UniProtKB/TrEMBL annotation:
GO molecular function, a single term: triose-phosphate isomerase activity
Compartments, as annotated in UniProt: Cytoplasm
Protein name, as recorded: Triosephosphate isomerase
Organism this protein belongs to: Marinomonas sp. (strain MWYL1)
Cellular component, GO, one term: cytosol
Claim: Cell inner membrane is one of the keywords in the record: no
PANTHER family documented for this protein: TRIOSEPHOSPHATE ISOMERASE
Amino acid sequence: MIRQKIVAGNWKMNGSKESIVSLISGLLEMDSSSSEVVVAPSFPYLSQVDGLISASSIVLAAQNVSQEVKGAFTGEVSTSMLGDFGVKYVLLGHSERRSLYGETNELVASKVKTVLDSGLTPMLCIGETLAERESGKTLEICEQQLQAVIDLVGIASFEQLVIAYEPVWAIGTGLSASAEQAQEVHESIRSFLAKSSESVSQKVQILYGGSVKASTSSALFQMPDVDGALVGGASLDAKEFIAIVKTAG
Ligand code: PGA
């Protein structure tokens, strides 16, 4: 099964009107790619970025969304608001949301449902901490995180979402998982999904995230079950991000 690669830049809480103009103008120099290239700015800049990328093939993502559809939820942002600004993907369950903002597997699952219902595409982030890896629980944790979503939306919905495996110990630490370590987990995630649906498990794109750089991405992208990358720090540098996209082909 040929799965298109996705290279997504998660800008996290970085950027300004000015820096975004220069970052996007750098990205617009990118040659056309067979991969889908995605950027995820903070909410206030979605409109600006939507305008700047409108004539390109770059795709817009948001970093979070409310599980509620509308109403009295001060400070929250809804899926329909994201849709108004051309957003296609929504990152959900990022480890920073889980660990710093208390997002549980159940809350993440309910956000996945809201995003699917709105017609946008969840980019569901899962992954284990260092302590969990060292105690041999990597797969158990990933499976629990996936199972909560399967329980709520069903396995068939996984054809409408993207998974990002991001080991927490590799995020922002400079310690990327090796290509073999990533492949091992990606393959296990696919086998886990195959227990519910073989065809869904073959279709779903599984990205790797955690300290991806151009120097590590090409080995990662050669792995049969690695369908792209979710890039944090390195996505803030246009040249580096373009170099990562190039390694994806
Ligand atoms: P990083 O972040 O590339 O800076 O490790 C990845 C992520 O958090 O999505």
